[in-house]
Amino acid sequence: MDDAFRDPSSPFHIAPGQAGPESPDSPPPLPDPTPSQSSHPTAVGSLAENARAKLISMGYDEGSLWEQSIVWGHHDSFRHGRIVWLMALGNVLGGEERVEAMLAGQGVSLILKSANINFRRPVTFPDTVRFSCNICLVMPITSSSRTRFTLNAVLYSYAQQAIVADSDSVLVWYDYDNLRKCDPGDNTWRIMKAASHGGQVEG
After folding, report:
1. Predicted pLDDT at 196
2. Residue 142 — φ and ψ, nearest 5°?
């Protein structure tokens, strides 16, 4: 039996540095099918750059681009993508201190009112998707629309080189100290308006 463990052609072979199964009934280890940058740096890098360039050319906010690997049983309803965008907005409005306050729900921040997600194509493992979003404002901005706006988002699949889902979320400016919706002020709307036209959250 020891000879079988040492023979590379044997099904019982255990290479140096590897461990055998925990028990005779343990299933054989499965190879990792995930295309990693270490094993396929050129292919994965090219797909990532193609996805990035495509989304930017379509007018989506470059600062909101976010990458998510697809794994078994994982589903994310755009929450992390919104947080990336929220942090960028908070940083423009008041730096790191404002970012922390907005994420913690302190003072004036945002709250999700509704979200509609359209799943265009199935996404299967292994794959990686890139997230991007745009602000959509109701123009002209009136007193009745100064408390909310729409955030349009998409998921772009590296493997399929196509948009596989899109989302429309209604976000409301919310005063967490007084527990009510509010108008964030002219400066915030100036930044929001510029972002809706230029695709970038900038001061």
Report:
1. 75
2. -110, 175
